[in-house]
Design goal:
TIM Barrel, globular, Alpha-Beta Plaits, 2 domains, two-stranded antiparallel sheet, alpha/beta
Protein backbone atom coordinates (compact mmCIF):
# COMPACT_ATOMS: atom_id res chain seq x y z
CA UNK A 1 0.00 0.00 0.00
CA UNK A 2 1.13 3.54 -0.75
CA UNK A 3 0.38 5.05 2.68
CA UNK A 4 1.45 8.48 1.46
CA UNK A 5 -0.89 8.51 -1.56
CA UNK A 6 -3.14 11.52 -1.14
CA UNK A 7 -6.19 12.85 -2.91
CA UNK A 8 -8.78 15.59 -2.62
CA UNK A 9 -11.73 14.50 -0.48
CA UNK A 10 -15.02 16.39 -0.65
CA UNK A 11 -16.86 14.68 2.20
CA UNK A 12 -17.04 11.55 4.35
CA UNK A 13 -20.37 10.14 5.50
CA UNK A 14 -20.65 7.20 7.89
CA UNK A 15 -23.67 4.93 8.37
CA UNK A 16 -25.20 5.66 4.95
CA UNK A 17 -27.97 3.35 3.72
CA UNK A 18 -28.83 4.28 0.14
CA UNK A 19 -25.58 3.91 -1.79
CA UNK A 20 -25.07 0.16 -1.78
CA UNK A 21 -26.21 -2.72 0.45
CA UNK A 22 -26.20 -2.52 4.24
CA UNK A 23 -24.62 0.15 6.43
CA UNK A 24 -21.78 1.88 4.62
CA UNK A 25 -19.02 4.43 4.93
CA UNK A 26 -19.08 6.71 1.91
CA UNK A 27 -16.02 8.61 0.72
CA UNK A 28 -16.76 11.48 -1.66
CA UNK A 29 -13.82 12.44 -3.88
CA UNK A 30 -13.46 15.86 -5.46
CA UNK A 31 -13.69 16.45 -9.20
CA UNK A 32 -16.15 15.81 -12.03
CA UNK A 33 -16.06 16.44 -15.78
CA UNK A 34 -19.85 16.91 -15.99
CA UNK A 35 -21.99 19.93 -15.19
CA UNK A 36 -25.40 18.38 -14.51
CA UNK A 37 -28.03 21.10 -14.28
CA UNK A 38 -29.51 19.58 -11.10
CA UNK A 39 -26.24 18.65 -9.39
CA UNK A 40 -26.82 18.84 -5.63
CA UNK A 41 -23.07 19.10 -4.95
CA UNK A 42 -21.75 21.71 -7.42
CA UNK A 43 -18.93 22.38 -4.96
CA UNK A 44 -17.59 18.88 -5.68
CA UNK A 45 -16.96 19.51 -9.38
CA UNK A 46 -13.67 21.45 -9.39
CA UNK A 47 -10.75 19.08 -8.78
CA UNK A 48 -9.08 21.47 -6.32
CA UNK A 49 -12.30 22.53 -4.64
CA UNK A 50 -14.09 25.85 -4.38
CA UNK A 51 -13.92 28.77 -1.99
CA UNK A 52 -17.34 28.86 -0.35
CA UNK A 53 -18.91 31.75 1.54
CA UNK A 54 -21.55 31.06 4.23
CA UNK A 55 -22.47 34.51 5.60
CA UNK A 56 -24.79 33.12 8.31
CA UNK A 57 -21.70 31.99 10.27
CA UNK A 58 -19.81 35.29 9.99
CA UNK A 59 -19.29 37.29 13.20
CA UNK A 60 -18.51 40.49 11.31
CA UNK A 61 -15.46 42.49 10.33
CA UNK A 62 -15.25 44.36 13.64
CA UNK A 63 -15.05 41.23 15.81
CA UNK A 64 -12.91 39.32 13.35
CA UNK A 65 -12.04 40.81 9.97
CA UNK A 66 -9.11 38.42 9.53
CA UNK A 67 -10.03 37.83 5.89
CA UNK A 68 -9.62 41.54 5.11
CA UNK A 69 -6.06 41.56 6.33
CA UNK A 70 -4.76 38.42 4.63
CA UNK A 71 -6.21 38.75 1.11
CA UNK A 72 -3.31 39.97 -1.04
CA UNK A 73 -5.43 40.03 -4.21
CA UNK A 74 -7.80 42.70 -2.92
CA UNK A 75 -10.75 40.34 -3.41
CA UNK A 76 -12.26 40.98 0.03
CA UNK A 77 -13.60 44.33 1.22
CA UNK A 78 -16.15 45.75 3.66
CA UNK A 79 -19.67 44.80 2.61
CA UNK A 80 -23.24 45.25 3.77
CA UNK A 81 -24.47 45.57 7.33
CA UNK A 82 -26.99 43.00 8.60
CA UNK A 83 -28.53 41.84 11.86
CA UNK A 84 -26.80 38.64 12.90
CA UNK A 85 -28.89 35.85 14.40
CA UNK A 86 -25.67 34.39 15.78
CA UNK A 87 -24.27 37.43 17.64
CA UNK A 88 -27.70 39.12 18.12
CA UNK A 89 -26.41 42.47 16.86
CA UNK A 90 -25.73 44.39 13.69
CA UNK A 91 -22.52 43.32 11.96
CA UNK A 92 -20.71 44.30 8.78
CA UNK A 93 -20.04 41.39 6.45
CA UNK A 94 -17.01 41.13 4.21
CA UNK A 95 -17.68 41.20 0.47
CA UNK A 96 -15.97 38.71 -1.82
CA UNK A 97 -15.09 39.70 -5.40
CA UNK A 98 -14.57 36.34 -7.09
CA UNK A 99 -13.19 37.96 -10.24
CA UNK A 100 -10.13 39.00 -8.20
CA UNK A 101 -9.84 35.87 -6.07
CA UNK A 102 -6.66 33.81 -6.69
CA UNK A 103 -7.95 30.83 -4.62
CA UNK A 104 -4.89 30.95 -2.37
CA UNK A 105 -7.03 29.85 0.58
CA UNK A 106 -5.56 32.29 3.11
CA UNK A 107 -8.94 33.81 3.92
CA UNK A 108 -10.44 30.38 4.65
CA UNK A 109 -7.45 29.37 6.80
CA UNK A 110 -7.81 32.54 8.87
CA UNK A 111 -11.61 32.67 9.09
CA UNK A 112 -12.45 32.43 12.80
CA UNK A 113 -16.00 31.14 12.29
CA UNK A 114 -15.47 29.07 9.11
CA UNK A 115 -17.84 31.32 7.19
CA UNK A 116 -15.21 31.19 4.43
CA UNK A 117 -14.08 27.63 3.74
CA UNK A 118 -12.70 25.35 1.04
CA UNK A 119 -14.93 22.55 -0.13
CA UNK A 120 -12.32 19.79 -0.03
CA UNK A 121 -9.22 18.73 1.84
CA UNK A 122 -6.21 16.60 1.02
CA UNK A 123 -6.23 13.22 2.77
CA UNK A 124 -4.05 10.14 2.63
CA UNK A 125 -5.20 6.59 1.97
CA UNK A 126 -3.95 5.71 5.44
CA UNK A 127 -6.11 8.40 7.09
CA UNK A 128 -9.20 7.21 5.24
CA UNK A 129 -8.58 3.58 6.11
CA UNK A 130 -8.33 4.54 9.78
CA UNK A 131 -11.88 5.91 9.55
CA UNK A 132 -13.15 2.90 7.58
CA UNK A 133 -11.73 0.38 10.06
CA UNK A 134 -13.75 1.94 12.87
CA UNK A 135 -16.99 0.82 11.21
CA UNK A 136 -16.12 -2.78 10.25
CA UNK A 137 -18.52 -4.24 12.84
CA UNK A 138 -21.41 -2.40 11.22
CA UNK A 139 -20.43 -3.73 7.80
CA UNK A 140 -20.27 -7.29 9.11
CA UNK A 141 -23.65 -7.16 10.87
CA UNK A 142 -25.52 -5.48 8.00
CA UNK A 143 -23.81 -6.80 4.88
CA UNK A 144 -22.52 -3.30 4.23
CA UNK A 145 -19.16 -1.89 3.22
CA UNK A 146 -17.53 1.12 1.61
CA UNK A 147 -18.77 3.27 -1.27
CA UNK A 148 -16.46 5.60 -3.18
CA UNK A 149 -18.44 8.48 -4.65
CA UNK A 150 -17.91 12.03 -5.84
CA UNK A 151 -17.98 14.22 -7.84
CA UNK A 152 -16.82 11.53 -10.19
CA UNK A 153 -14.40 9.37 -8.16
CA UNK A 154 -12.55 8.13 -11.23
CA UNK A 155 -11.30 11.64 -11.97
CA UNK A 156 -8.88 10.58 -9.20
CA UNK A 157 -8.65 6.98 -10.42
CA UNK A 158 -5.25 6.16 -8.89
CA UNK A 159 -6.33 7.43 -5.47
CA UNK A 160 -9.68 5.61 -5.68
CA UNK A 161 -7.89 2.40 -6.66
CA UNK A 162 -5.61 2.56 -3.61
CA UNK A 163 -8.55 3.00 -1.24
CA UNK A 164 -10.52 0.17 -2.85
CA UNK A 165 -7.51 -2.13 -2.85
CA UNK A 166 -7.09 -1.69 0.90
CA UNK A 167 -10.81 -2.28 1.47
CA UNK A 168 -10.58 -5.61 -0.34
CA UNK A 169 -7.65 -6.60 1.87
CA UNK A 170 -10.14 -6.31 4.74
CA UNK A 171 -12.69 -8.37 2.74
CA UNK A 172 -15.10 -5.44 2.66
CA UNK A 173 -17.89 -5.07 0.10
CA UNK A 174 -17.05 -2.15 -2.20
CA UNK A 175 -19.21 0.04 -4.40
CA UNK A 176 -18.25 2.78 -6.85
CA UNK A 177 -20.72 5.57 -7.63
CA UNK A 178 -19.86 6.72 -11.16
CA UNK A 179 -21.24 8.93 -13.90
CA UNK A 180 -19.63 6.79 -16.61
CA UNK A 181 -17.93 9.81 -18.13
CA UNK A 182 -14.24 8.95 -17.77
CA UNK A 183 -11.83 7.08 -20.09
CA UNK A 184 -12.04 3.30 -19.94
CA UNK A 185 -8.41 3.25 -18.75
CA UNK A 186 -9.64 4.80 -15.48
CA UNK A 187 -12.04 1.89 -14.93
CA UNK A 188 -9.27 -0.60 -15.60
CA UNK A 189 -7.44 0.70 -12.52
CA UNK A 190 -10.30 -0.24 -10.18
CA UNK A 191 -11.87 -3.30 -11.87
CA UNK A 192 -10.32 -5.90 -9.51
CA UNK A 193 -11.52 -4.07 -6.39
CA UNK A 194 -15.16 -3.10 -7.07
CA UNK A 195 -18.10 -5.38 -6.23
CA UNK A 196 -20.90 -3.08 -7.37
CA UNK A 197 -21.05 -0.09 -9.71
CA UNK A 198 -23.72 2.54 -8.97
CA UNK A 199 -23.96 3.74 -12.55
CA UNK A 200 -25.77 6.89 -13.68
CA UNK A 201 -27.95 7.12 -16.78
CA UNK A 202 -29.34 10.57 -17.55
CA UNK A 203 -30.57 10.31 -21.15
CA UNK A 204 -30.42 7.79 -23.96
CA UNK A 205 -30.39 10.62 -26.50
CA UNK A 206 -27.06 12.35 -26.98
CA UNK A 207 -28.46 15.75 -27.92
CA UNK A 208 -30.51 15.81 -24.70
CA UNK A 209 -27.48 14.60 -22.74
CA UNK A 210 -25.45 17.59 -23.93
CA UNK A 211 -28.12 19.94 -22.61
CA UNK A 212 -28.50 18.11 -19.29
CA UNK A 213 -24.89 17.40 -18.36
CA UNK A 214 -22.78 19.35 -20.85
CA UNK A 215 -21.48 16.20 -22.61
CA UNK A 216 -22.75 13.63 -25.14
CA UNK A 217 -23.66 10.17 -23.83
CA UNK A 218 -21.56 7.93 -26.10
CA UNK A 219 -18.72 7.35 -23.63
CA UNK A 220 -21.18 6.68 -20.80
CA UNK A 221 -23.04 4.01 -22.76
CA UNK A 222 -19.84 2.43 -24.10
CA UNK A 223 -18.36 2.08 -20.62
CA UNK A 224 -21.59 0.50 -19.37
CA UNK A 225 -21.44 -2.06 -22.20
CA UNK A 226 -17.83 -2.89 -21.36
CA UNK A 227 -18.58 -3.40 -17.67
CA UNK A 228 -21.56 -5.60 -18.53
CA UNK A 229 -19.45 -7.54 -21.00
CA UNK A 230 -17.10 -8.40 -18.13
CA UNK A 231 -20.00 -9.49 -15.93
CA UNK A 232 -19.62 -6.60 -13.50
CA UNK A 233 -22.64 -5.90 -11.32
CA UNK A 234 -24.34 -2.54 -11.88
CA UNK A 235 -27.15 -0.73 -10.12
CA UNK A 236 -28.47 1.85 -12.57
CA UNK A 237 -29.31 5.23 -11.08
CA UNK A 238 -31.72 7.38 -13.03
CA UNK A 239 -32.27 10.97 -11.81
CA UNK A 240 -35.75 12.03 -12.88
CA UNK A 241 -35.77 15.70 -13.85
CA UNK A 242 -39.27 16.93 -14.80
CA UNK A 243 -39.51 18.15 -18.37
CA UNK A 244 -35.85 17.37 -19.09
CA UNK A 245 -35.38 13.59 -19.04
CA UNK A 246 -38.69 12.10 -17.86
CA UNK A 247 -40.15 11.74 -21.34
CA UNK A 248 -41.75 8.32 -21.85
CA UNK A 249 -39.60 7.68 -24.92
CA UNK A 250 -36.44 8.19 -22.88
CA UNK A 251 -37.68 5.94 -20.07
CA UNK A 252 -38.56 3.12 -22.47
CA UNK A 253 -35.21 3.45 -24.28
CA UNK A 254 -33.40 3.32 -20.93
CA UNK A 255 -35.27 0.14 -19.99
CA UNK A 256 -34.41 -1.45 -23.36
CA UNK A 257 -30.73 -0.60 -22.90
CA UNK A 258 -30.72 -2.08 -19.39
CA UNK A 259 -32.19 -5.30 -20.77
CA UNK A 260 -29.39 -5.42 -23.35
CA UNK A 261 -26.86 -5.30 -20.52
CA UNK A 262 -28.33 -8.54 -19.20
CA UNK A 263 -27.70 -10.06 -15.80
CA UNK A 264 -25.13 -7.39 -14.91
CA UNK A 265 -28.01 -5.09 -13.94
CA UNK A 266 -29.03 -5.81 -10.35
CA UNK A 267 -31.69 -3.12 -10.08
CA UNK A 268 -32.85 0.31 -11.25
CA UNK A 269 -32.85 3.17 -8.74
CA UNK A 270 -35.04 6.16 -9.60
CA UNK A 271 -33.88 9.42 -8.02
CA UNK A 272 -36.65 12.06 -8.04
CA UNK A 273 -35.53 15.65 -8.59
CA UNK A 274 -35.07 17.82 -5.50
CA UNK A 275 -33.70 21.29 -4.76
CA UNK A 276 -31.55 20.52 -1.73
CA UNK A 277 -28.38 21.82 -3.37
CA UNK A 278 -29.51 25.35 -4.18
CA UNK A 279 -27.78 26.90 -1.15
CA UNK A 280 -24.47 25.38 -2.26
CA UNK A 281 -24.66 27.27 -5.57
CA UNK A 282 -25.07 30.52 -3.65
CA UNK A 283 -22.09 29.73 -1.44
CA UNK A 284 -19.73 29.23 -4.40
CA UNK A 285 -21.12 32.13 -6.42
CA UNK A 286 -22.89 30.13 -9.12
CA UNK A 287 -26.42 30.40 -10.49
CA UNK A 288 -28.82 27.47 -10.14
CA UNK A 289 -30.44 27.33 -13.56
CA UNK A 290 -33.46 25.09 -13.00
CA UNK A 291 -34.90 26.45 -9.77
CA UNK A 292 -38.21 27.00 -11.57
CA UNK A 293 -38.82 23.25 -11.82
CA UNK A 294 -41.16 21.52 -9.40
CA UNK A 295 -40.51 18.13 -7.85
CA UNK A 296 -42.33 15.19 -9.41
CA UNK A 297 -45.56 14.09 -7.67
CA UNK A 298 -45.19 10.69 -5.97
CA UNK A 299 -47.86 9.25 -8.24
CA UNK A 300 -45.88 10.17 -11.34
CA UNK A 301 -42.68 8.62 -9.94
CA UNK A 302 -44.59 5.41 -9.19
CA UNK A 303 -45.91 5.43 -12.74
CA UNK A 304 -42.34 5.55 -14.07
CA UNK A 305 -41.29 2.78 -11.68
CA UNK A 306 -44.06 0.58 -13.05
CA UNK A 307 -42.72 1.03 -16.58
CA UNK A 308 -39.32 -0.36 -15.60
CA UNK A 309 -40.98 -3.13 -13.59
CA UNK A 310 -43.02 -4.25 -16.60
CA UNK A 311 -39.74 -4.78 -18.45
CA UNK A 312 -38.79 -7.26 -15.72
CA UNK A 313 -36.32 -4.86 -14.07
CA UNK A 314 -36.29 -4.68 -10.29
CA UNK A 315 -36.86 -1.00 -9.55
CA UNK A 316 -36.72 1.11 -6.40
CA UNK A 317 -37.33 4.80 -5.66
CA UNK A 318 -34.82 6.95 -3.81
Amino acid sequence: MNHNKTGNVFDIQRYTLNDGPGIRTEIFLQGCHLKCLWCHSPDSQAINGELAWFPLLCVGTKKCGACLGVCKAGAISEGRTIYSKITKEEITLPQLDRSKCKKCGLCAKNCYSSALYYTCKSMSVDALMEIIRKDTKYYESSGGGVTISGGEPLVQADFAAEILKECKKLNLHTALDTSGYVPWANYEKVLPYVDLYLYDFKSMFSEISEVLIGKPNGLILDNARKLAGMGKKMQIRYPMIPGLNDQLENIHETAHFCLELGSSITKIQLLPYHKLGIAKYERIGREYQIGHLDTLPPGKVNEYREIFTKYGLETMIG
